[in-house]
Structure formats: C-alpha cells, structure tokens
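Following up on my earlier thread - several people asked me to post the actual chain instead of describing it. Fair enough. Here it is, all 151 residues.
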Amino acid sequence: MPQFCRYILVIAAFAVLAVAMCGCDNPVSRSLTEGDEATTTDSPSMSYTKLKALYEEAKAAGEQVPGDILEWAKSDLKKIGTWDYKIVSISSESEEAILNELKRLGSQRWECFWVEPKPGGKRFYMKRATRSYLQIAGGASKFVPVPGSGE
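Reply from S.P.:
Thanks for posting it. Predicted structure:
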C-alpha cells in the first residue's frame, strides 16, 4: 500500500473517532418527548425507549430484524457507511423512457454511478447508502465505546 494511502487511512480513522467522541452526528439538541428517559443529544447514551422506538420503526418498515433489540442495534450500526448495489438494464433507446426509469429509481434513493452500452440499450450501475435507523436518528455515536471509558 502506498505511503500516502496509509496517511489518508490514519486521518480518516482520527476523524471518525473525533466525531464519535463529541457526538457531532447530531449537533442540534432535541426536546424530550413523552415516555423518553432523561437523555438529550449531549448524553453519553441513548435511552432504551428511543432505541426500542427505532427498532419498532424498522420492524414496521418491513426490515428483517432479530428478536433482540441490542442485536438489532449492533447490526444496524454495521450498516453505516455501506452501500447497496443494483444493475439495471434498460432496453429502450428512447430518452424519455430512460429518464422515466431513472426518475423512478431515484425516488427509491438509487444513484447511477456508471453506464455502459449493451446491444439494444444500456446497462446502469446503481448504488444507494444502506439505511441505518440509528444514523438517521443521530444516535450512532452513543454506541461507539470511547477508549479508556472502561467499555
């Protein structure tokens, strides 16, 4: 691995650690809602009530979730920074038909990152960020252990 790549990886690791330590993934404070335990975004841990609500939201959305909330939280954290990929072949040469299909895919959060011709049409390579409920709710950093904290 070239030396500059190692430097970039080290810098990226420090940046992730800094974000995790300061909780910068959700800098805007939120007010407490009914049933929420006494935690805010500045708190070092997310309330069980909030975690359970996110778990139930994922379940209601049709996600395959484990039976244990903590196991779900661990698997949800692993989704952060990962991508789903999809290859779509469109046989039409009509720009309007291609545009309509790309708009449909875009509404599902798919983003085209490569196009290649194929006989009778085009092949589109798509990606989208894997959905993480903890990241969306701003609670991901609450689960990252801080070095020296005994966890």
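Residues 20-44 have pLDDT under 50 and may be disordered. That should answer part of your original question.
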